[in-house]
TrEMBL record:
Domain named HTH araC/xylS-type: residues: 38-136
InterPro entries reported for this sequence: AraC_E-bd, GyrI-like, Homeodomain-like_sf, HTH_AraC, Reg_factor_effector_dom_sf, SmbC-like, Tscrpt_reg_AraC-type_HTH
PROSITE patterns noted in UniProt: HTH_ARAC_FAMILY_2
Listed Gene3D superfamilies: Homeodomain-like, Regulatory factor, effector binding domain
Coiled-coil boundaries: none
Ribosomal protein as UniProt keyword: no
Molecular function via GO: DNA-binding transcription factor activity; sequence-specific DNA binding
UniProt keyword annotations, A-Z: DNA-binding, Transcription, Transcription regulation
Species of origin: Pukyongiella litopenaei
Protein name: AraC family transcriptional regulator
One matching Pfam family: HTH_18
Length: 306
């Protein structure tokens, strides 16, 4: 989470402080910067194999390159170049696990002219080459995992979860691409100094990817917030009721989550003696992917129970 700007947020209520007064002009300026960041994030996700140079992204943002890279880093916590490398590597990881495309095709779709340069970048993020990663099938499982046939059974328990409220943005399309919505939500929270109200991040999945065309899949990317927070413009509230849930803890890169979901529904749920409730399942992210190595990411898959 990034609480950048929190100091100014407190100072703006001090009488006579002209630098932090919340004038209409200041608010318009912050909203404009937020819009530019979100536009660039969308562009990176939509064009992983395109020109994602600093000059091109500055053009997309409609801002001088001399200032744009500073604005992007201040509002997202990473440089444009690192964001491009990370998003390309993530898209490639999903394609490696979820498709049978040759590595050369994955490399090209991820924006790399040759498999060698792609392999170097991929190894930097995932600690292994594309071929090794694909052969593993799912990334970095917990050392305490149990194998059930060809499924990996991650530690799972039935737990009573508290009610949660999300400040969310709707994502329509392939579930692995929900990261773009999360980055847009993050831009809103940074631009409006809302991170002090954040209690974590979660995604809600309303569609079944086995029954719904990818282009029509419906999900929500959100930040967990207090009930008392006034919902910021551009975001909407999503309520997750309290109650019993099957909770699977998955360690490793997000590209392995599809296999973990399958293990939840074909392994744990049939054996636990409980029926799922008529509510959407969701994921809760326990650490920040921009600050955490892929193998150390922690995700809770949560299925409401009747």
């Amino acid at each position: 989470m990034n609480a950048a700007g929190a100091g100014c947020n407190k100072a703006r209520f001090v009488t006579g402080n002209p630098l932090c007064l919340r004038t209409k002009e200041k608010e318009v300026s912050r909203t404009d910067y937020e819009t530019r960041v979100r536009r660039v994030i969308q562009y990176i996700y939509d064009h992983p194999d395109g020109d994602l140079s600093l000059d091109q992204l500055a053009d997309v943002a409609a801002m001088s390159r001399f200032h744009w890279h500073r604005v992007f880093r201040a509002m997202t916590g990473e440089t444009c170049a690192r964001a491009v490398r990370r998003i390309r590597a993530h898209r490639a990881a999903c394609w490696l696990v979820q498709t049978d495309w040759p590595v050369e095709i994955v490399a090209a779709r991820a924006g790399y002219d040759n498999p060698q340069s792609f392999a170097r970048l991929f190894r930097r993020f995932y600690g292994q080459g594309p071929g090794e990663f694909r052969a593993a099938g799912v990334a970095h499982a917990l050392p305490t995992e149990l194998t059930r046939g060809d499924l990996v059974m991650h530690p799972t328990e039935i737990r009573d979860l508290p009610a949660r409220r999300l400040a969310a943005l709707t994502h329509t399309g392939p579930f692995p691409e929900i990261g773009r919505a999360f980055q847009e939500v993050s831009a809103v929270f940074t631009a409006r100094n809302l991170w002090p109200h954040a209690r974590g991040m979660a995604a809600v999945y309303y569609s079944d990817p086995g029954e719904t065309p990818e282009s029509e899949l419906h999900s929500e990317a959100g930040v967990i917030v207090a009930e008392t927070l006034d919902m910021p413009a551009d975001l909407h509230a999503v309520d997750l009721p309290a109650g019993p849930h099957a909770v699977m803890t998955v360690k490793g890169d997000y590209s392995g989550l599809a296999a973990a979901w399958e293990a939840m529904y074909s392994g744990f749920l049939p054996d636990c003696g409980r029926d799922p409730a008529n509510r959407a399942p969701f994921e809760v992210y326990l650490n920040d992917p921009s600050q955490t190595a892929p193998e150390d990411l922690l995700t809770e898959i949560c299925v409401p129970l009747a």
